[in-house]
Amino acid sequence: MPDHAMKTPPPYAIASVDHALRLATILQIEGSLSVTEAAERLGVARSTAHRLLAMLVYRDFAAREDRRYRAGPVLELAAHSRSAVARLREAALPHLRRLVDHLHETVNLIVRTGANARFVASLEGDQTLRLGSREGMVFPAHRTTGGLLLLAELSEEELEAVYAGEEPEAGEDAPPDLERLRAHLEQIRRCGYAVNQGLSERGVTAVGVLVRDSRGTALGSLAVALPTVRYEPEQLPRLVATLQHAAAGVEADLAEDAPA
Q: Which pTM value belongs to this model?
């Protein structure tokens, strides 16, 4: 169970509303998608995805073009941002699949937005006891492997700006103690990887590394997550090396497909 890891869900959650909001987020951050792609991302029938997208179009959150749906007028400001996250996810997916085949554990692609970390891709491991998909979920950045790695890339001033004036809503995490966080981030910078044992969820251990662009700027993080009962410290060098190899593959694919 999450340990203050995410926003507390409303007591009477409405699945259709949640699905519609997730679709709007995907359109805003990642770009266009088809009905089939929407159904796959949400895990619903095509007819359900079609109805959800039709309602988003009706309310101007989406627009239809050649059997695909893109961000509509309400989300238009984000339409220009398509891409970095969409390209990153597209480049990372084949490498995430190979990681699952090799490690047999759940793997994630994580990006940071302000003080939050968003799981933009998540593939489940193939073992009976495994971590479920976290795709679409948002966690406090300082409580996730990928979030910590991305926070460690910030300057002192940038880090302070992220948490300036942060006031938690009811049921949400308090902002982190910046002195303790700085010390943790310094350790991550020295190691070049991050290990999270129970920070985001009890009984979960995650290991992650950064994915960078050709200029060395951090774009996101690849992480493997597994039940803590199955994690042994002796595994760490192998996990880090495997993740770094996958990250290098993602970086090479991004460089190859970069716009001229």
A: 0.70
Q: Judging by DSSP bridges, how do beta strands 116-123 and 138-140 pair with one another?
A: antiparallel
Helix or strand run (H / E) with residue 179: helix 178-191
What topology is assigned to 15-79 in CATH?
Arc Repressor Mutant, subunit A (1.10.10)
The 3-state DSSP class for residue 91 equals: helix
Check if the beta carbon of residue 208 is closer than 8 Å to that of residue 243. Answer: yes
Gap between the Cα atoms of 122 and 133, Å rounded:
5
Helix (H, G, I), strand (E, B) or coil at 106: strand
Overall CATH class of domain 82-257: alpha beta
What is the per-residue pLDDT across 178-234, written as a single tens digit (0 to 9) for each? Answer: 999 999 999 999 999 999 988 878 899 999 999 999 999 999 999 999 999 999 999
Residue spans of alpha helices (H) in 31-81: 35-42, 46-58, 76-79
Whether the Cβ atoms of residue 111 and residue 120 lie closer than 8 Å to each other? yes
Domain ranges (residues) in the chain: 15-79, 82-257
Q: Tokens 């308090």: give the residue.
A: 174
Question: CA 191: distance to chain centroid?
Answer: 22
